[in-house]
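User: Fold this; C-alpha cells only.

Assistant: Input:
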Amino acid sequence: MAKSATASMADENSIGARLKSWPQRTKDFLRDVRTEMKHVTTPSWKEVRATTVVVIISVFLFAAFFWVVDMVIGRGLDAILKYFVK
C-alpha cells in the first residue's frame, strides 16, 4: 500500500505530469487574476493629487533631515580629526 501511494505521488510530481497540467494551471491562474482584478478600484483624480502632494512633501522633509544629519556627522568627524592631528 505504501509503495502505490509513493508511486502515485512520484507520478504527480514528474515532469510529464507537470507539463500535462500546465494548461489547466494557466487557466486557473488567469481566472484568479480576473477575479482579483474585479476587486481593484482606481483612485479618483482628487486622491491622486492628495497622495502626490504627500509624497513630494515627505521627500523634501527626508532630504532636509538627512542633510542636517550629514552636516552634523561631517562636522563632528572634522572636529575629531582636527583634535587628533594637533
